[in-house]
Amino acid sequence: MHPLLQLPPFINQRMDNSMNSVLLAGAMAGLIGSGVLGAAEPNAAAAKPMLVIHGGAGVERADLNADEEKAARAALEQALRAGHAQLSAGKPALEAVTAAIVVLEDAPMFNAGRGAVFTHDGKNELDAAVMDGASLRAGAVAGVHTVKNPIALARAVMEKSKHVMMVGAGAEAFAKESGTTLVDPSYFRTEKRWQQLQKALKEEAAKQAHSDIETAKHFGTVGAVALDKQGHLAAGTSTGGMTNKRYGRVGDAPIIGAGTYANAHCAVSGTGWGEYYIRAVAAHDICARVQYGGQPLREAAEGVINRDIPKAGGDGGAIALDAKGNIALPFNTEGMYRGWIGADGVPHVAIYKDDKLPEPAAAVN
Amino acid sequence: MHPLLQLPPFINQRMDNSMNSVLLAGAMAGLIGSGVLGAAEPNAAAAKPMLVIHGGAGVERADLNADEEKAARAALEQALRAGHAQLSAGKPALEAVTAAIVVLEDAPMFNAGRGAVFTHDGKNELDAAVMDGASLRAGAVAGVHTVKNPIALARAVMEKSKHVMMVGAGAEAFAKESGTTLVDPSYFRTEKRWQQLQKALKEEAAKQAHSDIETAKHFGTVGAVALDKQGHLAAGTSTGGMTNKRYGRVGDAPIIGAGTYANAHCAVSGTGWGEYYIRAVAAHDICARVQYGGQPLREAAEGVINRDIPKAGGDGGAIALDAKGNIALPFNTEGMYRGWIGADGVPHVAIYKDDKLPEPAAAVN
């Protein structure tokens, strides 16, 4: 066995006390219905699975024609169905998050996996992270070039290594050893993204000092948060970074706490101007406001994403989900590819700010 | 001008409201004394500068002979004096943190800069991060090999780039462009660290599955948190990583929120088993318990470092400082190089658990 691989994987002695209660509550749910125990026990009402996804907050109406918009909506629905299939089969939230993100990574219109944007040097540098709220295990990778599904590599780091975060050539070496699917870097070259880099380089040459502001809107990320039948949460995020970013820059997506975070109470995946999300420790801050400050999930998410980050000069969005099934999808850009799917298996998706996205029925605080 | 450099640097629109109050309180302090306004205004009582440092929680009695212990104490005192000189001259907390960490990086006995441990491949991979609590600006680097003072490069990323985190060859390229002092990688080769790697490799070969546990005690980090005369906080951390770590692994030190965090209320630098600190978002979680949960600093720091992280299977320590000058130095290992220096300029240092470290006199909650 290669020393990069490890058996047994990271053992988590941290078993949440509420787990036993959840099992009990699950057994009792058929008798007394959900919601009654839910008020006292964070996870107990979580018999109803939920999956929320995003495909990036950088989208603008001018970016998409009617066919592209239709294709994007179809891909979001496909991702929701893929994740929902896991949840309805009783699989852990982690599986739903991974399944949904793989679909989004494989679709060429989102800035992750196949559709990753180009760095300043004309490369595609991929980052991803995943976190399991029940065990607080996590895995993250940054700066990989040949990994078809970076979210799968993040999971391999979590499950098959003794580390949480691996970057660059070391992460590539681990990908090879752990059997993660590799592709030629040309797999990530899509014409639309290449033209975006050329435009950004031209803008930069014309007025260098403002280039970061001009190109900031080209950020994008995909992500998912899920709640499974056992009442456990998970979160994952994957990205191709920022168009024209410098070689070696790491954004918030692979930073546990910044772009990705999950615990027993709350799961978040962010999509925005990474530097501001890192400085705000955005994903963990949302969960901390819920856990320590007693704020409802939506208020906490709004406070971080739509108040604090814009005040600091950043922008973007996030998806958040708590153990009771409450969801929040704040953003302050023209659009955010987004959607959710509940126990009934009906996908709901939206792109622009004025798109109607129905609310889940049974959310409680 | 090279495109990696940027003018003006990251502009921070986030100006804390309490700043005006601090200036006012500072002017009034001579008349009414500190503490009166302090109860109402987090930063107002902070006329007394404070610097707290650590040199890593991995130290054990068996590691040091009497001469080595004496040299370590002298280096800690030198770092405290270097930081204190900045604070007593009225310089920002950020300057004190940087000055103290540069001394610790240059000293060969701490696992950062000169004394960095070796990776599995026999290299020295250096990581560092710095955060300014007043502006919430931050800079971080990971996986650099030729940067004499990684904390200086982290500051350059914060002040001279539009990014927060840069890794590997990209970070090295930025170091060159930003005028950061470079050295030959052999500068970081110290005999004691090389022998530690040989021992770890031998242990690993003998009983591979347990090698991570055996080598975990060889972690180490240096860090500093400071409170300046203006009542502003800053935090910084620098490390050579973990002996025998795999190429490309990133620990908690350069992760904003995990090993390093500062805001207007609280500053933390961690030193421990990085994977557990990342999963706990340790530094930010301590500050969140203070800010949202209303916990005293010491209780918050104890909860994260000495309760949650050991429960998950990790170990280590941290230093924490709030805007009122309260300090906490929790750890759960045999020793932690540590010390503090207050307004009077007298350094206090300790190494092992049973070493007496005096308490600052005037801390309030």
Automatic annotation (TrEMBL), chains A, B:
GO MF terms here are: hydrolase activity, acting on carbon-nitrogen (but not peptide) bonds, in linear amides; peptidase activity
Keywords from UniProt, A to Z, are:
Autocatalytic cleavage, Hydrolase, Protease
Protein's GO biological process: proteolysis
CDD domains, alphabetized: Asparaginase_2
Task: Identify which residues the record assigns to the active site.
Answer: T221 (nucleophile)
Does Glycosyltransferase appear among the keywords? no
Could you say which residues are annotated as the site Cleavage?
G220, T221
**Membrane: present as a keyword of the record?**
no
Q: Where is the signal peptide?
A: none
Positions annotated to bind substrate: R249, V250, G251, D252, T271, G272, W273, G274
Q: What is this protein called?
A: Isoaspartyl peptidase
Q: What organism is recorded for this protein? A: Tahibacter aquaticus
What does the record give as the organism's lineage? Answer: Bacteria, Pseudomonadati, Pseudomonadota, Gammaproteobacteria, Lysobacterales
